[in-house]
Structures are given as C-alpha cells and as structure tokens.
Amino acid sequence: MVKKMKSTKAAPEGAGTRNAQGSHLAASVKESAQQIWLAGMGAFSKAQEEGTKVFEALVKEGQSLQKKTQGMAEEKLGEVTGKMSAMAETVTAKAGQNWDKLESIFEQRTAKAMSKLGVPTAKDVQALTERVDALAAAVARMGKAAKPAAAPAKAAKSARTARTAKAETMPPAKPVRRARKTAA
Q1: Which of 11, 139, 171, 180 would staple 17 via disulfide (CB 3.0–4.6 Å)?
Q2: What is the pLDDT of residue 180?
Q3: pLDDT tens-digit series, residues 111-153
Q4: Which residues contact 15 (CB under 8 A, 6 or more apart)?
Q5: Which residues contact 24 (CB under 8 A, 6 or more apart)?
Q6: How far is CA 148 from CA 137, 153, 160, in A?
Q7: pTM of the full predicted structure?
Q8: Which residues contact 86 (CB under 8 A, 6 or more apart)?
Q9: Domains in the chain: boundaries
C-alpha cells in the first residue's frame, strides 16, 4: 500500500528543513507511483492468467443460454404454428360457406334466366323421359296384343281377295257424292 507521509512538527523556518521535507515528499510520491505501477502489472498478469479461464467459462455460459433460448423459441414457434393452423382452418371454413352461398345465388339466377328463355330444366327433361318410357311400354304392350290377332287378319285378307275377284266381274259402281262442308 501507499505509505503516508508522517507529519513533522512545525520546523523552524530554515532552508534545510524545506529541502528535507521536499526531498522526503518526492521520495514518498515516487514510492507510491512505483507501488501503483506494480499493482497494475500484477493485475494485468493475473488477468492474463485467468482471462482464458474466464473466457471459457463465459463461452460455456453463452452456450447454455443459447440452448435455453432455442428451446423457448421452438416452443413458441409450435404454439404460433398451432394458432395459425387453427386460423387457417377457420378462414377456409368461412370461405367455403361464402363460396356455397355464391354458388347457390349463381344457380338461382341462371335457372331464372333459362326459364325466361324457355329452356327446359333437368326436372322437365326427367318428366319427359319418364313419359316417353311409359309410352314405349304401352306401345310394346299393344304390339304384343296385336300379334295374336294377326291370324284372323290373314283370314280377313283372303276373304278380301275373294271379294275383289268377284268385284272384278261386276260392272263398276257409281261414285258416291259426299256433301261439302261450308265455312260459316
């Protein structure tokens, strides 16, 4: 430590005392400066020795802090990702509902315009298809019923040919006049 200067009793005024005090003061200041310099050198040496140890300890602490920070960041990222997925699903559902409404409005307006133009709807076409199928079935039934009656029709045909042969031998008949309808 720095040494303090001892105070001297009031010295008689003389040149020798002043010089002794001045040189004693200079020596004391010089010794204090020397001690300060040596303390600085010792601190520098100690910092160099322990500096690498402190640096390594700080690196380890930084790595530990980085791992903790990354863990927290990944956790927060997972939470944010979950929230964003939920929001995306909500937006998708709302968009789907709006799309369905828009599609319904479009279909209604298109159907209205087509009915004004006289274009048949799918229901009209279905009803016509069912009627055609029913008529085709009725025609088929009638065709089946007409086939058994074909045998009597052959007999009637042969009777007609006999009549025609007889008619050829007879004189031609006079044509029958029919009354005309007049427009009123």
Answers
A1: 11
A2: 57
A3: 888 888 888 888 889 999 999 999 999 999 998 887 665 555 5
A4: none
A5: 5
A6: 18, 9, 20
A7: 0.29
A8: none
A9: 120-153
